[in-house]
Design a protein that fits this description.
With 191 residues, this protein is an alpha/beta fold. It has a single domain, classed as HUPs (Rossmann fold, 3-Layer(aba) Sandwich). Helix content is 32%, strand content 17%. Strands 3-2-1-4-5-6 form a six-stranded parallel sheet, sandwiched between helices. Helix 2 runs antiparallel to helix 6 (178-187). It is globular.
Length: 191
């Protein structure tokens, strides 16, 4: 029996925005994936983010963002794992927990220059397919033969831009899913 193909879209999603959703939707609809799971990272080992919302707030923003769309799922699996979160540890845990699933990584081209610094990058490359979507800030170059470059639309919206804009009193509601925006506004986040 064929295993369900699950794309894992890791991120802090601080906050989730329409760019995240468009990329995930592209992967769900235009690749061989059955579903995309948004894996919320509680602590990225490469980031020191003092503006990081609490885990449960970022999970709530994601739940509101995806609604009942059946090809998306929110995963808070990394909340239970040791910190900082390392992709290979999460993958190992998911493989054991869901033997009926086949996991694929989804990542932006901005992650490629530092991929060799990840924990056990050779094991990740050996065991998992990696779909890479392009970013303007990080054009794809010739060294990525192990990765599958996906011709997804380029999204240059970022969570950093949204946080900074809110701090400056800008209205950025149209950059985000409506229900997520309302939650941020009600809770006075990032001000």
């Amino acid at each position: 029996m064929a295993r369900n193909k699950i794309g894992l879209f890791f991120g802090s999603f601080n906050p989730i925005h329409n760019g995240h959703l468009m990329i995930a939707n592209y992967m769900a609809e235009f690749s061989d994936l059955d579903q995309v799971w948004f894996v919320i990272s509680p602590q990225n080992p490469f980031k020191n983010d003092t503006e990081l919302l609490a885990d449960y707030h970022r999970r709530e923003l994601l739940m509101r963002a995806i609604g009942d769309y059946p090809r998306f799922m929110v995963s808070s699996v990394e909340f239970k794992l040791p910190k900082p979160s390392f992709t290979i540890d999460t993958l190992d845990f998911l493989e054991q927990s869901y033997p009926d699933k086949q996991f694929t990584l989804i990542m932006g081209s901005d992650q490629l220059p530092n991929f060799h610094l990840w924990k056990k990058p050779e094991k990740i490359l050996e065991k998992y397919k990696i779909l890479v979507y392009p970013r303007h800030s990080s054009p794809v170059t010739g060294h990525q033969s192990q990765f599958e470059i996906v011709n997804a639309p380029m999204m240059e919206i970022s969570s950093t831009f949204i946080r900074q804009s809110i701090k400056q009193g800008k209205d950025v509601r149209f950059y985000m899913p409506e229900l997520s925006w309302h939650y941020i506004d009600e809770m006075h986040f990032y001000r």
